[in-house]
């Protein structure tokens, strides 16, 4: 299991994720493969969304890396998360729907952090987000072919759609 951290997507990359860029059929293949690999448990806390009162066990989260020099947003993989851990990853949206306090409590418990450590982590994430949100990012989702068989043409179309 790993640390539970906030991952803020640059504003200039909003609404262009793998789920929206690929045909539903391929997103479903990717997410189902991620769920099975994780044995339908959160890869951070080991819990299931069903145990938390949700109708589903896990959700598929995209792991992004950023080449700040070349301005490339690089998909490095997918991870299955319970809904509560996924809310922390998408802290901006979580705050917008009024669940900020729940997300802080989750980070504190999972990471064994104080509230101050969570606030510091969020502040550092916000600074990074602000700096990255100035730029237009090129997209690299080539890792998808390592996860499931997706035609190169579809990946190229997805990247083109993002521009």
Write the layout of secondary structure elements.
Blueprint lengths: L17 H4 L2 H14 L21 E9 L4 E10 L1 H7 L1 H6 L3 H12 L3 H18 L5 E3 L3 H4 L4 H11 L1
Parallel strand pairs: 2-3
Antiparallel strand pairs: 1-2
What does this structure look like?
- The protein has 163 residues and is an alpha+beta fold.
- The chain has one domain (11-162).
- Helices cover 47% and strands 13% of the residues.
- The protein has eight helices and three strands; from the N terminus they run H-H-E-E-H-H-H-H-E-H-H.
- It has helices at residues 18-21, 24-37, 83-89, 91-96, 100-111, 115-132, 144-147, 152-162, and strands at 59-67, 72-81, 138-140.
- It has a three-stranded mixed sheet with strand order 1-2-3.
- The longest helix has 18 residues, at 115-132.
- The protein starts with 17 loop residues before the first helix and ends with a helix.
- The mean pLDDT is 93.
Which radius of gyration do the C-alpha atoms yield? 16 Å
- The low-pLDDT segments are none
By oligomeric state, this entry counts as single chain
Q: How many E-type strands?
A: 3
With strands numbered from the N-terminus, the spatial order across the biggest sheet is: 1-2-3
What general form does the structure show?
globular
Head-to-tail CA distance between termini: 35 Å
| Overall pLDDT metric | 93
- Figure out the total of helices: 8
- Largest β sheet strand count, sense and barrel closure: 3 strands, mixed
The secondary-structure element order is: HHEEHHHHEHH
| Secondary structure category | alpha+beta
Number of domains: 1
Give the proportion of residues in helices.
40-55%
